[in-house]
Design goal:
Layout lengths: L2 H11 L2 H60 L5 H15 L3 E6 L2 E10 H15 L2 E11 L5 E10 L4
Antiparallel strand pairs: 1-2, 2-4, 3-4
Helix pairs in contact: 3-4
Length: about 160
Amino acid sequence: MKLAPALQARWDGLADREQTLVRGALALVSAAVLWWLFLAPALHTVRTAGAEHRTLQAELEQMKTLQSQARSLQAQPRLGYDEALRALRASVQALGARAQMGEAGERATITLRAIPADALAQWLTQVRINARALPTDARLTRQRGESGTAYWDGTLVLSLPSR
């Protein structure tokens, strides 16, 4: 390889000041590469670890809450079809004229008109707990009210406990 002797000859041809500048430039480039490859990622991890830990801790707490809710739902005694249907009818009546219910076998179809988003979320939770009804199909569209509140229109199909 003739490259190494050519480089050596070129290096020997440089003045001491130029050799010092080339060594300094190489040291600077080496330090930058070391920084970008090893130190910067580690420092970024150290800086963001606290916030990421808090986020993961909040997610863990939420998961534990959901787990306890699931266990409490599993521990509840089974409802018969008739009891579940009565509970579902009562919850639909609580929504007023904005909701209507139709039944077909072990499924109930709920038609919703202008139900506020928070009321729908609370209603779904209550239906799940009290009637043991599970949503199997949802065809909902979101509407915006004059005050910026979200309203939902559409149908929900709920599965009731078997007879």
